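Tutorial sheet, problem 5. The two components below are modelled jointly, 228 residues in total.
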Amino acid sequence: DQQVKQNSPSLSVQEGRISILNCDYTNSMFDYFLWYKKYPAEGPTFLISISSIKDKNEDGRFTVFLNKSAKHLSLHIVPSQPGDSAVYFCAASAIGAGSYQLTFGKGTKLSVIP
Amino acid sequence: DSGVTQTPKHLITATGQRVTLRCSPRSGDLSVYWYQQSLDQGLQFLIQYYNGEERAKGNILERFSAQQFPDLHSELNLSSLELGDSALYFCASSATGTITDTQYFGPGTRLTVL
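Model answer (structure tokens):
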């Protein structure tokens, strides 16, 4: 049973436009969420995180939005750049339940077209 | 470069064999994590060590075992290998081992079981 779902395996966006990557979760105990970016032949790299006490967190061109009632989060990249082309993984954890474990989605491959 | 090193980069072996994957964490990091990424799957958390002690266990098979040594490097041992064990195995490290502490991933070891 997949607790973290990224329903779009791929996404193509024009350079300069907004990229929106979506993630849904089913476990109501999840209270901490992260996005990782992965280039080919490299390990994932941490991008941004958000705690369930917030509904938005921003870091430069990257913003994560959390909708707890819908159990949905999204990553916005504005403006998108060709170097953003990578696979993006959403991950979640249940810190309040004492978890040390991250549960990852399957990833969305973002292609930014120059 | 995340500072986490993994050896070997690639490993090809036969069913029934045993292999050892090695990970050196970033300098100063006390915690090591192991993940498995199979084809079309997200990263699956296997196990976490903190300063030599097992801290959390995920979906790790009984045929798999790991340890963290006094110099903080870690090894993941996979035995009685099956075709389905073919995957990318990532090691990550963090300073304190808490979920809110950034995990830095190595480049991975690609295991192919024939």
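Marking note: The first strand of chain B starts at residue 5 and ends at 7. Full credit if you identified this.
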